[in-house]
Structures are given as structure tokens and as C-alpha cells.
Amino acid sequence: MKYLAQFGYLKGPSRETQDLRSQEDLTRAIKALQKAGNIPQTGVPDRRTEALMAKPRCGNTDEFVQHGAIYRDPNSQGSELRIRKKRYTVATSKWQRTNLTFRFQTYTKHMPRERTRHLISEALKVWSDHTPLSFTEVRHSKPDINILFASKYHSDGYPFDGPGMVLGHAFFPGRGKGGDTHFDDDENWTSNASSSGVDLFMVAAHEFGHSLGLAHSGDPSALMYPWYMGFEGKFRLPDDDYRGITSLYGSGNRGTRLPDKEKVALIPQSNDPSEEDPTYDIEPEEPKVKDEKDTPPDYCSSPIDTISFIRQEMFMFIGKWSYRFKKNGEKDIVEIHQFWQGFPKDLNHIDAAVELPDPDRRILFFSGKRYWIFNSNYIARGMSSQGRPITEFNIPEDVKKIDAAFVWGYNLRTYLVSGDMYWKMDENNRFVEYDYPRDMGTWRGVPVPLDAAFQDKNGKTLFFQGLRYWEFYDLRMRVRRGAKLIARWLRCPKEETEELKIETYPSSVDKAPDPKAGDAAEHKLKKGESAKDAACSLKNISLMLLCFVSLLHYHRFSSG
Predict the structure, then answer these.
(1) Has 80 been labeled as part of a binding site?
(2) What is the CATH number of domain 297-518?
(3) Cβ(40)–Cβ(280) below 8 Å
(4) Which of 63, 233, 369, 504 is the 20 to 30 Å CA partner of 89?
(5) Contact status, residue 383 vs residue 341, Cβ threshold 8 Å
(6) How many CB atoms lie within 10 A of CB 545?
(7) How many Cα atoms sit within 13 Å of 349 on the Cβ side?
(8) Where are the alpha helices (DSSP H) in 12-94?
């Protein structure tokens, strides 16, 4: 998911809605990536797709996807996508003059400076040979193109990722950073045909295409194809790139141009004859025989692991399955890692989940003694797929798992529950507050251990255990009378929703809560309710006395 969003195959969520993607959106995006990468369009992240996503490439987005270069042919059968004949894509800006300047801010540590300057000059010459453009190296601080070799974060908002995958990126023509070209210096930059490094000339020629106004091309033979093409020996600018750059700046003293005899390779080819080249006419894999583990449980009759209300939609988790209940009534049921991109594939349950009440509306998940943070339905930057220990929240080592996590509508603070204890998180949701845990008896009538808790779209706090749930009365700090069936709430078939005959409250309610167990707000509410209960008790005594006096008068009247 992160890869698809990063490179333009999925639209990024807005900060206002933080929309979650459907399985259909994800399948369509994967097919577009597979078409762009010249591999079979299966719509699932199979072995070839994972290999494609691991290939070295440019860090700029694949704008030809957003600009309609990849499309579904209405006259073709099936759901395969096609790429339009005009594959180059131009940006919305170009340089308004032809004599451009460039400057080295830093040099790579992997080769001598003079060698670097020569390779950069040759890469710029790829474009000046076919256009009226010229490039001059300068020493002053305001060139058209700044050239930078850097690692990780380098003050442009697009940090590099270390060796592999993203090799560099560049900005389209314009003010400020417009035209600037950055290379990841964690790569092993080389020149000529080195099998153990990345060829600087080829990558630089590609990135300078962006600096001049060319976006990525959907043509696998083009220099502006997103993935690294490797060293070509004597390089010639492919036709697609020539048409793109001359559409922006016109042609220069180019002379007669003959068609390319060979296609440019995507990456250096393996010498292993057992490796197959990408092809579309492959035999489909034999379908696997599904066992019970591959069938999602019936949510109407199965105990849940947890339920949460995320982005105004309800999500339920049972075993390795994620159930999404959309606003339009549709349901998506997939394995957890397929929708929540970043979880390990072997994750077999979620104990608790909550959308945090912070500006970014992050989503916090718990499984066992570990937690994960997500932005929308992909894992947050810097978060490991294996999660992090819950002790980072200052939760004690002996806590085995978090049973429930919820935001209480009364104060909009996040609460975590484990067994008969609960914690309140600080205002930044970074740690639990110092005077916790406290006894769950404060939340009168709430059964323990919990399976889930959350605040619904109407602001009601709901607590879940087994196949039942309880609605909480915030002002009285107790559950409302009568447990209800989850199946009825989910509008399951009628035969599965007969009302349970249960006690009004679990036996734990009869235990008098300790006033010290609640915080100031909770204690105040309980104190007010205690006074009200006392008044009701006095009223009951008065009624009993009145009845006794009436009976006495009746007896005297009858006997007399």
C-alpha cells in the first residue's frame, strides 16, 4: 500500500477525510503497477509484483498513471489494462530560457570529483544534443539546477531510504527547488559497466529529464521509464524521450536519426538461465484447496477479537480476518495484512484498535505485548512491521495484552483496558498517566475481561464481551440496563438475534467502587449519583411507612 501511494498508483488520503481504500481500489492499483512493470496483471501482490517493487527506481511519482496513460480498453474482454501509444508525459512547467546553469552542492563519496563532474556533464549532454538547451557549471549560489548527493533526510521533505530502491529524485522546472536534482549517496555509485554498483550516468540522465520538465514514461524502452535500466554501453536517446523533450523545447542540431535497433533493458539481466523473462502468456497457477483457516468466520455467531469505529466506518477483527462495514452497507472481508498494509503476514489476531483523537487521526493497534501505529490503512513512517513493545507507553512488563482501547466521549481522552485494570493516556497519546492503572469497578456494570470498546458515530460508548454489548451512561458512570446481542446490532438474520435472558448487571457491579479509583471528573459524577441514590432510598422508606400506616387503619376499620 505504501509503495502504491508513494509512486502515484493510489491517491493519497486527504488530511480532512483520511479515506480508507477498498479492496477494489487496491486491486486496480496493483494491476496498473503490473502493467507499467510489464508483468502479468493478476491484481494481487504476487512474487513478480514483489520483485518489481524491490527493483531500484527513481523516487518521483509515476504520473503517466494519473494522466490516463494506463487505461481499461472497453473493447477488450477481461479486466487487463493497456498503455496508450503516446507514452511520454510532460510536467505542467518548463524552463522559459535555453541557457541553463548548474552547481554541485556536494559530491559523492564513491568516486573522485572530476569523474563525477564528467559523468554529470555527459548526462546533461544527452538532452542538449537534441534540443536548443545548453548547460554551464557555475559557482554562485543561485543556479537553475542544484546537484546534491545526500543520505536519508536532506531538507526537502523526501528522505532517501538507504541502499536499494529509490536512487534519486528531481524537481520539475520552477522557482525555489525547481530543477534541483538529488542522488542517494547510500548507493554505490559507479561508472561504466560495474555489476556491483549503480551507474551514475544513467541515473543522472534520467533525473535531469525531470529537471527539464519530463515526467515518467510508460514505455519500458524509454530513459524516463521509472525503473533503473542499468548501463547501456554507447547510449542513444530512445524515441519516446526524444519526442517528449522536443515537445517542450523543439529540436536542435540533431541530424538524421535512425530507429533504435534494440530495446533498452529494464535492469541488467541475470545470467541464470532458470529465471524466466516477464511474459503475458503464462499458465495460471493451480488453485489451492481452501481449508477452514482460509474461510472467514461468521461474524453473526463468532466471538470477536475486537471492534472499532475508524474513519466513520466500523471494523471488526476475528482471528486473522478484518471485516469492514462501509457506509453504503457493503462489507469487505479480507486477511488483516491485505487491507492494513504493513502488518506481518503471519499476524493472526488484533486485541484492540482505536482511532486516536489527535490532528492526524492516527490508528493504534494492539496484538499481544506489541503495538502498531497506522496513518489511514498503511503503517506509519518509521514503524516496524513487527510493531513496538507496549511498555513504551509506560505499561508494566507483566501486562500480557490490551483487551480494549477507546476514546471516551465525556473528555475525549484515550483509555486502555487489560483485565480489571485501566489506564488513561496523556493528551498527546504518548504515555499513560502516572497515577494509573485503576480498578475497572469505576466503570460500573462493565464486564471484565472486555473484548472491545469504542465510541460510536452518535457519541455513545459501547463495551463488548462475547456475543453481547452494553451501552454506557456517561453521566451516571454505569452501563444502561440490559445487555444486547451484537448480532442484532449488526442486523444479522432474525434467527440469530433472539434476546438473551441475562442479569441486568454482572456480579462485579455489586462491588462498591473505591472513590480513589476514579479521577476528579469520574469521582464528581459518582458523588452526584450517590447523593441521588441516597435521596431515592429515603423516598422508598417514606413510601413503606405510608403503606404500613394505611394497612393499620384498614385493620382497625375492619375489626371495628
Answers:
(1) no
(2) 2.110.10.10
(3) yes
(4) 233
(5) no
(6) 10
(7) 16
(8) 23-36, 47-54, 63-66
Task: Output the nine-digit C-alpha cell for 249.
Answer: 523545447
Question: Is there a common fold for 1-268 and 297-518?
Answer: no
The CA-based dihedral angle spanning residues 47, 49, 52, 57, taken in that order and rounded to the nearest 10 degrees: -140
- 404 closest CA partner among 375, 374, 376, 446: 446
At 74-118, the pLDDT tens digits run 444 444 544 444 456 777 789 999 999 999 999 999 999 988 999
3 state SS of 304: coil
Please give the single-letter amino acid code of residue 267.
I
Which H helix or E strand runs over 207? helix 200-212
| Contact indicator for 517, 438 with CB cutoff of 8 Å | yes
The answer on whether 50 is annotated among ligand-binding residues is no
Q: Does residue 58 have a known ligand-binding role?
A: yes
Nearest to 227 by CA among 255, 202, 256: 202
Torsion of CA 260, 262, 267, 270, to 10 degrees: -170
Q: Which three cell numbers stand for residue 461?
A: 460508548
Instruction: Determine how many CB atoms are found less than 10 A away from the CB of residue 178.
Output: 17
- Of 393, 319, 384, give the one whose Cα is nearest residue 350: 319
CB under 8 Å, gap of 24 or more: what pairs does 189-193 form?
A: 189/108, 189/110, 189/111, 189/116, 189/149, 190/110, 190/111, 191/111, 191/115, 191/119, 192/231, 193/231, 193/233
Q: What is the pLDDT of residues 124-153, one digit of tens each?
A: 999 999 999 999 999 877 899 999 999 998
Q: Exactly one of 207, 286, 471, 529 is catalytic; which is it?
A: 207
| Residues 320/339, Cβ–Cβ less than 8 Å | no
Provide the 10 A C-beta neighbour count for residue 164.
14
| pTM recorded for the entire structure | 0.48
Any binding-site annotation on 353?
yes
- Whether residue 224 is annotated as binding a ligand: the answer is yes
Residues in the chain, overall count? 560
Distance between CA atoms of residues 146 and 217, nearest Å: 24
Active site residue 207: yes
Nearest to 110 by CA among 219, 34, 40, 198: 198
261 is written with which cell numbers?
535497433
Predicted confidence (pLDDT) per residue in 43-61, tens digit: 898 999 999 999 999 999 8
Spans of all domains in the chain: 1-268, 297-518, 524-560
- How far, in Å, CA of 250 to CA of 28, rounded? 36
By the 8 A CB rule, do 229 and 202 touch?
yes
- Kindly state the cell numbers that stand for 60: 518521483
CA atoms within 13 A of residue 246's CA, in its CB half-sphere? 14
SS3 of 389, please? strand
Whether the CB-CB separation of 217 and 178 falls below 8 Å is answered with no
Binding site annotation covers 536? no
Would strands 181-184 and 189-190 be described as parallel, antiparallel, or unpaired?
unpaired
